[in-house]
Amino acid sequence: MKKSFKKTAFALGLVASASLGAISSAQACLVYLGASNNEHPLIGRTVEFGFDEQTQTSFATDFINFPRESHFTTYGADKPLSWTNKYGFSGMAHEGLVSDGINEKGLYVAMLWFADGKYAPRDESKPSIASGSLGNWILSHYASVDEAVKGLSQTSVYQSADNHLGIELPMHLQLVDKRGKAVVIEYIDGKMTVTDNSEFGVMTNSPKIGDHMVAYRELLDANPHLDVSKPSVKGMLAGLPGGYTAVERSVKTAVLKDLTPKPKTKVEAINQVIHTLNNTDYVKGASSFPSRGLSGGAQETSFITIIDMENNDYYYRTVDSQVLHKVDIDKVDYSQGNPVTSFDIYGGIQYIDVTYRVQ
Q: What is the 3-state secondary structure (H, E, C) of the chain?
């Protein structure tokens, strides 16, 4: 991480309450910009969610493809907004709502839980989108981070429990485009805030992104041997957080991201992202949320995703299959008139039998 960023983060005026022990933080999802073998972004993402403890059924998720001019309708309004998409896009969807996806122009969106968020009331004078529909809306309309930020500034985003989970979906988002620009968008006290996250790169759940950045700065101040910008004797990562709260996960990932050497190949880069994500993996049922509607109860890392924005490859791995699966986005036909297609991501290959190699 560059010194200029660290100094900027330290000067944000957030230091007073931002220690690892002081921040109230939720658990769950994570997204970050991994070390790439070139200038093109490589994104890693985890999704933590509840599962049915009786049937062991995971959070229903489909990999979905929306061709151009597909029809969408948001929820939670007497006269809900409907639209068709300018750009084709693909990603992980829950009852048609994409929470992690990329469009054909190379704009990526990750939506994560943000309990500290507060949305303004619905403004009918603007295009009005329920928070859970943000992924579909952004991927439908925008080709870059700058376009998306401008468009969202002219959009009313509101809360409603009229969705598949039956609860309000307080979200903050990380947007990344092919140029490597990354921003976090949060709705705080009824206002949209935009934070450049191109260098820090990591986002988890609540609290707000600025608090995560300051917690990271404070960790490095207390553990200079983890700071790659300072000449020091490297040790065995002493002082690196080992817990699973959102702040601990983001700070741990940020440090590992810094310490990861630049990979020589794309395969090496992808493998490094997987190893980093493994450091925050929820063992099935070990963690539990007291209440969050259908998303509460015993938790698991339902799936991870890795997006290679150079080759437009979308990888994923699920809780029931540790084998990496790939969708080549360049081979998806987004032509207008094609049907929406999807498949259940679970139930993949359990293992690869290589007994033949010793026979």
A: CCHHHHHHHHCCCCHHHCCCCCCCCCCCCEEEEECCCCCCCEEEEEEEEECCCCCCCCCCCEEEEECCCCEEECCCCCCCCEEECCCCEEEEEECCEEEEEEECCCCEEEEEECCCCCCCCCCCCCCEEEHHHHHHHHHHHCCCHHHHHHHHHCCEEECCCCCCCCCCCCEEEEEECCCCCEEEEEEECCEEEEEECCCCCCECCCCCHHHHHHHHHHHHHHCHHHCCCCCCCCCCCCCCCCCCCHHHHHHHHHHHHHHCCCCCCHHHHHHHHHHHHHCCCCCCCCCEECCECECCEEEEEEEEEEEECCCCEEEEEECCEEEEEEEEHHHCCCCCCCCCEEEECCCCCCCCCCHHHHC
Asked if residue 5 has pLDDT above 50, the reply is no
How many other CB atoms are there within 10 angstroms of residue 59's CB atom?
A: 21
pLDDT digits (tens, 9 = 90+) for 80-138: 999 999 999 999 999 999 999 999 999 999 999 998 889 999 999 999 999 999 999 99
Check residue 291 and give its pLDDT.
Answer: 62
- In whole angstroms, what is the distance from residue 45 CA to residue 272 CA? 13
What pLDDT band is residue 292 in, cutting at 50, 70 and 90? low
- Mean pLDDT in residue range 218-240: 87
Of residues 186, 187, 216, the one with CA closest to residue 199: 216
Q: Give the mean pLDDT of 2-12.
A: 36
Domain 23-205+263-358 CATH superfamily = Penicillin V Acylase; Chain A (3.60.60.10)
Torsion of CA 177, 181, 182, 185, to 10 degrees: -90
Mean model confidence pLDDT for the chain: 90
Q: What is the pLDDT of residue 293?
A: 62
